[in-house]
Protein backbone atom coordinates (compact mmCIF):
# COMPACT_ATOMS: atom_id res chain seq x y z
CA UNK A 1 0.00 0.00 0.00
CA UNK A 2 1.98 3.03 -1.20
CA UNK A 3 2.06 6.15 0.91
CA UNK A 4 1.91 9.79 -0.15
CA UNK A 5 5.21 11.57 -0.67
CA UNK A 6 6.87 12.60 2.56
CA UNK A 7 9.27 15.36 3.44
CA UNK A 8 12.96 14.63 3.13
CA UNK A 9 14.26 12.29 5.89
CA UNK A 10 16.03 15.19 7.60
CA UNK A 11 12.72 16.88 8.44
CA UNK A 12 10.83 16.31 11.65
CA UNK A 13 7.97 13.83 12.07
CA UNK A 14 4.58 15.19 11.11
CA UNK A 15 1.96 15.69 13.82
CA UNK A 16 -1.72 15.46 12.94
CA UNK A 17 -4.54 15.81 15.45
CA UNK A 18 -8.26 15.51 15.95
CA UNK A 19 -10.91 15.23 18.64
CA UNK A 20 -12.54 17.80 20.80
CA UNK A 21 -16.32 17.86 20.54
CA UNK A 22 -18.65 15.38 22.21
CA UNK A 23 -18.31 11.84 20.86
CA UNK A 24 -16.34 12.94 17.80
CA UNK A 25 -14.75 10.47 15.41
CA UNK A 26 -11.05 11.10 15.07
CA UNK A 27 -10.58 10.35 11.42
CA UNK A 28 -8.11 10.84 8.61
CA UNK A 29 -5.51 12.90 10.53
CA UNK A 30 -4.51 14.15 7.08
CA UNK A 31 -3.44 10.63 6.07
CA UNK A 32 -4.09 8.90 2.74
CA UNK A 33 -7.41 7.01 2.74
CA UNK A 34 -5.78 3.56 2.54
CA UNK A 35 -3.82 4.35 5.72
CA UNK A 36 -6.40 6.50 7.55
CA UNK A 37 -8.86 3.61 7.87
CA UNK A 38 -6.58 2.04 10.49
CA UNK A 39 -6.31 5.27 12.47
CA UNK A 40 -9.96 6.15 13.11
CA UNK A 41 -10.78 6.52 16.79
CA UNK A 42 -13.99 7.39 18.62
CA UNK A 43 -13.00 10.21 20.97
CA UNK A 44 -15.35 11.18 23.78
CA UNK A 45 -15.89 14.67 25.12
CA UNK A 46 -13.04 14.29 27.61
CA UNK A 47 -10.62 12.55 25.26
CA UNK A 48 -8.15 13.58 22.60
CA UNK A 49 -6.50 11.82 19.71
CA UNK A 50 -3.57 12.41 17.43
CA UNK A 51 -1.25 10.70 14.96
CA UNK A 52 2.47 11.00 14.34
CA UNK A 53 4.20 10.00 11.08
CA UNK A 54 7.86 8.99 10.79
CA UNK A 55 9.87 7.94 7.74
CA UNK A 56 12.39 5.16 8.35
CA UNK A 57 15.36 4.44 6.06
CA UNK A 58 14.77 0.69 6.28
CA UNK A 59 12.43 -1.78 4.56
CA UNK A 60 8.93 -2.40 5.92
CA UNK A 61 9.85 -5.99 6.90
CA UNK A 62 12.77 -4.81 9.04
CA UNK A 63 10.72 -2.13 10.80
CA UNK A 64 7.85 -4.58 11.34
CA UNK A 65 10.22 -7.14 12.88
CA UNK A 66 10.93 -4.64 15.67
CA UNK A 67 7.40 -3.28 16.15
CA UNK A 68 5.58 -6.63 16.18
CA UNK A 69 7.52 -7.84 19.25
CA UNK A 70 4.84 -6.99 21.82
CA UNK A 71 7.03 -8.63 24.45
CA UNK A 72 10.01 -6.33 23.72
CA UNK A 73 8.85 -2.70 23.50
CA UNK A 74 12.10 -1.63 25.17
CA UNK A 75 13.89 -2.55 21.93
CA UNK A 76 12.96 0.92 20.70
CA UNK A 77 10.79 2.62 23.35
CA UNK A 78 13.38 4.41 25.48
CA UNK A 79 10.91 5.25 28.26
CA UNK A 80 10.35 1.53 28.92
CA UNK A 81 12.67 0.12 31.57
CA UNK A 82 11.41 -3.46 31.36
CA UNK A 83 8.54 -5.58 30.12
CA UNK A 84 7.17 -8.96 31.09
CA UNK A 85 4.35 -10.92 29.53
CA UNK A 86 1.71 -11.64 32.17
CA UNK A 87 -0.72 -13.67 30.04
CA UNK A 88 -0.43 -15.04 26.51
CA UNK A 89 2.16 -15.97 23.93
CA UNK A 90 2.58 -12.72 22.00
CA UNK A 91 -0.63 -13.05 19.99
CA UNK A 92 -3.84 -11.04 20.24
CA UNK A 93 -5.04 -10.98 23.84
CA UNK A 94 -1.54 -11.06 25.32
CA UNK A 95 -1.14 -8.90 28.43
CA UNK A 96 2.18 -7.26 29.23
CA UNK A 97 3.32 -5.28 32.24
CA UNK A 98 5.62 -2.44 31.31
CA UNK A 99 7.83 -0.68 33.86
CA UNK A 100 8.56 2.92 32.95
CA UNK A 101 11.83 4.79 33.53
CA UNK A 102 11.88 7.27 36.39
CA UNK A 103 11.07 10.89 35.67
CA UNK A 104 7.71 10.25 34.01
CA UNK A 105 4.33 10.54 35.76
CA UNK A 106 3.99 6.74 35.68
CA UNK A 107 5.58 3.62 37.11
CA UNK A 108 3.79 0.71 35.41
CA UNK A 109 1.38 0.12 32.57
CA UNK A 110 -0.60 -3.06 31.90
CA UNK A 111 -1.33 -3.37 28.18
CA UNK A 112 -3.42 -5.76 26.08
CA UNK A 113 -2.55 -6.59 22.47
CA UNK A 114 -5.69 -5.87 20.42
CA UNK A 115 -4.48 -6.29 16.81
CA UNK A 116 -1.43 -8.03 15.37
CA UNK A 117 -1.77 -8.17 11.58
CA UNK A 118 1.40 -9.47 9.92
CA UNK A 119 -0.05 -9.11 6.42
CA UNK A 120 -0.96 -5.41 6.68
CA UNK A 121 1.66 -4.51 9.34
CA UNK A 122 -0.81 -3.27 11.96
CA UNK A 123 -0.35 -3.46 15.73
CA UNK A 124 -2.78 -2.06 18.28
CA UNK A 125 -2.76 -2.17 22.05
CA UNK A 126 -4.91 -0.82 24.85
CA UNK A 127 -3.83 0.20 28.34
CA UNK A 128 -5.94 -1.78 30.82
CA UNK A 129 -4.25 -0.96 34.13
CA UNK A 130 -1.16 0.24 35.91
CA UNK A 131 0.06 3.31 37.74
CA UNK A 132 -0.07 6.19 35.24
CA UNK A 133 -2.27 9.08 34.07
CA UNK A 134 -3.16 7.81 30.60
CA UNK A 135 -6.55 6.21 31.22
CA UNK A 136 -8.28 4.47 28.31
CA UNK A 137 -5.22 4.84 26.08
CA UNK A 138 -5.46 2.96 22.78
CA UNK A 139 -2.75 3.03 20.14
CA UNK A 140 -2.60 1.82 16.54
CA UNK A 141 0.71 1.56 14.68
CA UNK A 142 0.93 0.84 10.95
CA UNK A 143 3.92 0.48 8.66
CA UNK A 144 3.77 1.22 4.93
CA UNK A 145 6.22 1.38 2.03
CA UNK A 146 7.39 4.91 1.28
CA UNK A 147 6.96 5.90 -2.37
CA UNK A 148 10.49 7.32 -2.43
CA UNK A 149 13.15 6.43 -1.81
CA UNK A 150 12.43 2.82 -2.62
CA UNK A 151 13.15 0.54 0.32
CA UNK A 152 12.11 3.05 2.98
CA UNK A 153 9.13 2.67 5.29
CA UNK A 154 6.61 5.07 6.76
CA UNK A 155 5.36 4.45 10.30
CA UNK A 156 2.11 5.98 11.51
CA UNK A 157 1.15 5.80 15.18
CA UNK A 158 -2.20 7.15 16.30
CA UNK A 159 -3.89 7.11 19.67
CA UNK A 160 -6.93 8.14 21.67
CA UNK A 161 -6.71 8.80 25.42
CA UNK A 162 -8.67 10.38 28.26
CA UNK A 163 -7.64 13.91 29.19
CA UNK A 164 -6.49 13.68 32.83
CA UNK A 165 -8.27 15.90 35.36
CA UNK A 166 -6.59 19.29 35.54
CA UNK A 167 -5.20 19.04 32.00
CA UNK A 168 -6.45 20.32 28.67
CA UNK A 169 -6.68 18.42 25.39
CA UNK A 170 -3.71 20.40 24.10
CA UNK A 171 -1.65 19.61 27.22
CA UNK A 172 -2.43 15.92 26.81
CA UNK A 173 -1.71 15.88 23.05
CA UNK A 174 1.60 17.66 23.50
CA UNK A 175 2.68 15.25 26.24
CA UNK A 176 1.63 12.06 24.43
CA UNK A 177 2.83 13.28 21.02
CA UNK A 178 6.25 13.96 22.54
CA UNK A 179 6.50 10.40 23.85
CA UNK A 180 5.24 8.90 20.56
CA UNK A 181 7.61 11.09 18.54
CA UNK A 182 10.58 10.04 20.69
CA UNK A 183 9.58 6.38 20.33
CA UNK A 184 9.26 6.64 16.54
CA UNK A 185 12.61 8.41 16.19
CA UNK A 186 14.17 5.67 18.30
CA UNK A 187 12.42 3.04 16.17
CA UNK A 188 13.93 4.64 13.06
CA UNK A 189 17.44 4.53 14.55
CA UNK A 190 16.97 0.94 15.72
CA UNK A 191 15.60 -0.36 12.40
CA UNK A 192 18.15 1.55 10.33
CA UNK A 193 20.96 -0.10 12.32
CA UNK A 194 19.71 -3.65 11.61
Looking at this protein, list some descriptive labels.
abscisic acid binding; protein phosphatase inhibitor activity; alpha+beta; globular; 194 residues
Summarize the structure.
InterPro entries: Plant_def-hormone_signal, Polyketide_cyclase/dehydratase, START-like_dom_sf. With 194 residues, the chain is α+β, with helices and mostly antiparallel strands. The protein has helices spanning 33-36, 60-67, 169-192, and strands at 14-18, 24-26, 41-43, 47-56, 80-87, 95-100, 108-117, 122-131, 138-145, 153-162.
Secondary-structure element pattern, one letter each = EEHEEHEEEEEEH
Question: SS-based structural class?
Answer: alpha+beta
| Number of extended strands | 10
Low-confidence stretches: 1-21
Radius of gyration: 16 Å
The end-to-end distance, rounded to whole angstroms, is 23 Å
Helix content: 10-25%
Family: Belongs to the PYR/PYL/RCAR abscisic acid intracellular receptor family.
Biased composition (Pro residues): 1-10
Pfam families: Polyketide_cyc2
GO molecular function: abscisic acid binding; protein phosphatase inhibitor activity; signaling receptor activity
Could you please describe the fold and organization of this structure?
By secondary structure, this protein is of the alpha+beta class. The chain is 19% helix and 38% strand. The strands form 2 sheets. Strands 1-4-10-9-8-7-6-5 form an 8-stranded antiparallel β-sheet. Helix 2 packs across helix 3. It starts with 13 loop residues before the first strand and ends with a helix.
Strand-helix topology:
Blueprint: E1 14-18, E2 24-26, H1 33-36, E3 41-43, E4 47-56, H2 60-67, E5 80-87, E6 95-100, E7 108-117, E8 122-131, E9 138-145, E10 153-162, H3 169-192
Antiparallel strand pairs: 1-4, 2-3, 4-10, 5-6, 6-7, 7-8, 8-9, 9-10
Amino acid sequence: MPFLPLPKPSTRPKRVTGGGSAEERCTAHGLPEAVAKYHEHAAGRKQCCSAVVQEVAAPVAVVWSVVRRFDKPQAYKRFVRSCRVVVGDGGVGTLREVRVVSGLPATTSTERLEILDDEHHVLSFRVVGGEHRLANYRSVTTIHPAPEPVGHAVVVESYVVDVPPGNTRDDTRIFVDTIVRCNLRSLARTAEAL
